[in-house]
Amino acid sequence: MQEGHVHPLSTAISRINAIFYALGYEFAEGPLIESEYYNFDALNVPRNHPARDMQDTFWVKGVREAVLRTHTSPVQIRYMETHTPPIRIIAPGRVFRNEATDATHEAQFFQAEGLCIDRGVSLAHLKGVLEHFFSAFFERDITVRFRPGYFPFVEPGVEVDMLFTRKDGTTAWIEVMGAGMVHPTVLRAGGVDPEVYSGFAFGFGIERLVMIATGVDDVRLFHTPDLRFVHQF
Amino acid sequence: MKVSRAWLQTYFDDPLPPAAELAELLTFHAFEIESVAEVGDDHMIEIDVLPNRSSDCLSHRGIARELATLLARPMKCDPLREPIPPYEHPHGLTVRVEDTTLCPRYMAAVVRGVSVGPSPAWLTKRLETVGQRSINNIVDATNYIMLDTGQPLHAFDLAKLLENDAGERVLAVRAAREGERITLLSGDERTLAPRHLVIADGVAEQPLALAGIKGGALAELTPQTVDLVLEAATFNYTSVRTTSRELKLATEASLRFQNEPGATLPPLALRDLITLIGTVGGGVEAGVWDVGEGEGERTSIKVHLATVNSLLGTSLSVPEVEAILVRFEWEFSRADETFAVTPAWERSDVTTPEALIEEIGRVYGYRKIRSLAPAKPLTPPAVNATYQHTETLRRTLAAAGYSEVYGYLFRDRGEVELANALASDKAYLRANLREGLQEALERNAPLAPFLGLDDIKLFEMGTVFREGGVEHLHLALGVRGIRTKQVTLEAMLVRDLARCTEALGVTFDGTVAEEGVTEVDLTRALALAPHPTVYDTPLPWDSTARYTPWSPYPHALRDVAVWVPEGTSPEDVRAVLTTHASELLVRHHLFDTFTKDDRVSYAWHLVFQSSERTLTDADVNPLLERISSAFAERGWVVR
Predict the structure, then answer these.
(1) Does B537 fall in a domain?
(2) ipTM of this complex prediction, to 2 decimal places
(3) CATH architecture under which domain A8-230 falls
(4) Helix axes A8-21, A123-138, angle to 10 degrees
(5) pTM reported for the whole predicted model
(6) B129 and B59 part of one domain
(7) What pLDDT does A48 receive?
(8) Which terminus of chain B, N or C, has fewer Cβ atoms within 10 Å?
């Protein structure tokens, strides 16, 4: 009998979970239909603030203030509300953006959110965790660098590049995620005292990591049920 | 925000580094750079200024200020720090602001005796370098000062305002009347309502501009214009944002106003605009109205050295932090290891210790942040039972021959509708998996020979959306018989579903089966399944796997069967096949083997495909002949 193939997104999520589990991160989840509060307000994206335009949003008809979550960040708030620090979670899942699709944009895709809250957590810890993760995921030594970035739910906010060595030995800096130190307003929204605790958070696209690892050149392939794609993994 | 290097240079005595170096400096200490382009003898740098810095950095002055900090060199001039001359009120014009919440500050300057005409070459060039079109000297001057200072500005033709009986003209900042219409400078019309703020001719009762968004045609400048009213104002950012979105009018002005530039800015920009119009248009200032006022004094932010280091993960000393703070040219003092810093008024984004630490960190340089290896946890985290169960199901189904697909969540029907769908056939969230899986079976059935599959067996696991937005986790299995009878496959599907329940240790209820697809709601079953305490090893991953795109052209399928003497291996036959079939043979599968009278028969599926065109018999038949002759040379008999 011929064995079936598991979808590469499932495999990627499984590996992400295993790498972070070993670092003490719990797999956390949240609903795909989110309230405006969890998706924006609690994440320091106020109503009528231009930062809301950074993520094109789908609204759900007939449910008050309900959106399709635009990122996995609402899971941060939901988890903080029911847990006390130290907190370490990894939250992979579907997210939605109301934008036209092309080879690098999908209206539905997968993201993974990481959150670590403890006493004395710094950008240096974030860098260490990300280098460990990328090195384990891509099975090669990877260093990361930070550049200034802006996401309302973190301050300082950074863009993360990784120095990626290709199979042919050439290297390139590749932009892979947004991250930063959790904004005090966000910690407070989750019931965590920013005077005592600090934390970092990061979020990345899972398709993008698989594309970098395997050379898939069109993000839409992940969401097209075609075995010519799935059987290559 | 597109900036010109030559324009930035006007802020410094010494030559700035080349554009590429400026871009690199900004990339690692301030903003992402979209592009750098050579424009004539100048360079344009396109900077991605995000909402946190849109109130001060959508301007050349703002970027120059950043460079001054990052290069640690003073600016030779700064329009935001230079004095404002005293103004008289103008004769014959008054300003009436009816809502000071929506318009905290309104300044109107009268300038007389201009001649409207083409801009001087330097001004046209500056604007064109940053992608703006030259219109006339007066409009260009307002755009130039906006791009220089970040303050949106507007020029009205004074003569087009009606005089009242006392010979006065009136500019009114007021709510639009219900149904009031305005023709914009672009010629477009909009019908307004009281929620929209306008600048109106207070005598003629006609709207002259949509406040903070776009000017109207009524008081538009013409070559005959001689006297101007120049506007520099502050409008409520929510009001500008909601109006701009509702009326679908996004402009350079609305972009800036919705990011709240300070109310201290209008007089500074107006001063520069009056001067520039004097130079390029010959007008003379004849009085200024100023209704409202700027922001008050800022309070200081206190931050301790230890907090700076503990958030950034650095070990900066007091002198190092001081050396960074000095570069901003902000007021600050220090008591022991605590700094009290008062950012400049235009940096409305810096109000908390964390924001200040971010400023220190990015000037210091994030590239210098070290890496601390993560500590191993003392106790393992909780296992997410639902997730572990889904992995078990994936493993079980893959072993039973099912491949996993991820379908689209947007469909043409369902129980939850989107308010702003991408398209009418994507207006609902899926209420089940089976419709999508049926389509997936249809799509993949013709591919079975190409993929070397006897039959198509698929599964999908994921969220479906029910009435009121309730989310359920579903699993669907589907089969399509190609070589096997459909009824046989469907019987196997029932058995394979039983394998799933066995693997989880629960039973499924509410199973829906139709046309080769079975769907179950996992929500309850997974809650009842025994709770795992550890994760299995992760799903297998082939780290050498590289994706290869497939040809968009159809494949041609041929079968070949050959008698060979016993002892000839399939590999021997495969070698002959692949040597003689050319690169058009993209796949081949041995699908049948049997032995009779010291001879073995091997039967192969051969898949031919080109990445450039559709193959015909004329392409494929000669290849088959070549294969046959190669077999014959070895004494093998094609069946």
Answers:
(1) no
(2) 0.96
(3) 2-Layer Sandwich (3.30)
(4) 130
(5) 0.91
(6) no
(7) 79
(8) C
Do B548 and A232 lie within an 8 Å CB cutoff? yes
Task: Reply yes or no on whether the pLDDT at B186 is more than 90.
Answer: no
Can you tell me the distance from the alpha carbon of B393 to that of B385, in angstroms, rounded to the nearest whole number? 12
pLDDT digits (tens, 9 = 90+) for B538-568: 998 887 888 988 888 888 888 889 999 888 8
In a shared domain, residues B110 and B136: yes
Q: How far, in Å, CA of A77 to CA of A37, rounded?
A: 10
Give a yes or no: residue B260 inside a domain.
yes
Same domain, B103 and B236: yes
Domain membership of residue B77 (yes or no) is no
Segments making up each domain of chain A, as ranges: 8-230
Mean pLDDT by 10 residues, chain A (233 residues): 91 97 96 96 87 85 91 96 96 94 92 96 97 96 96 96 89 96 97 96 97 94 95 91
**B408/A108 touch (CB, cutoff 8 Å), yes or no:** yes
CATH number, domain with residue B515: 3.30.930.10
Q: Is B238 in Cβ contact with A150 (below 8 Å)? A: no
Say yes or no: B100 and B248 in one domain.
yes
Are B272 and B306 in a shared domain? no
- Please state, in angstroms and rounded to a whole number, the distance separating the CA atoms of residues B303 and B325: 12
* B426 and B565 co-located in one domain: no
Band of pLDDT at residue B637, cut at 50, 70 and 90: confident
Which residues of chain B neighbour A184 with C-beta distances below 8 Å?
A: 352, 354
- Best B248, B372, B495, B522 residue to mutate vs chain A (most A CBs within 10 Å): B372
Nearest CA of chain B to the CA of A79: how many Å?
Answer: 13
Coil vs helix vs strand at B413: coil
**Contact (CB, 8 A) for A180 and A157:** yes
- Number of structural domains in chain B: 5
The answer, for A155 touching chain B at a CB cutoff of 8 Å, is yes
Q: Which domain holds residue B364?
A: 301-368
Q: In the predicted model, is pLDDT for residue B178 greater than 70?
A: yes
Strands B403-404 and B456-466, sheet pairing? parallel
B225 within domain boundaries: yes
pLDDT at position B313 over 80: yes
**Domain end marker among B262, B292, B322:** B292
List A residues 75-104 in contact with B (Cβ-Cβ < 8 A). 88, 94, 96, 98, 100-101
Q: What residues form DSSP beta bridges with B341?
A: B301, B332
Question: B515: closest CA among B407, B440, B428, B448?
Answer: B440
Same-domain pairing of B481 and B568: no
Q: Tokens in use for B30?
A: 């301030």
pLDDT digits (tens, 9 = 90+) for B364-376: 999 999 999 998 8
Q: Which of B343, B368, B393 is a domain's end point?
A: B368
Residue B619 exposed, middle or buried by CB count within 10 Å (0-12, 13-18, 19+): middle
Q: In this structure, are residues A231 and A8 in contact, taking their beta carbons and an 8 Å threshold?
A: no
Per residue in B78-89, pLDDT (tens digit) is 999 999 999 999
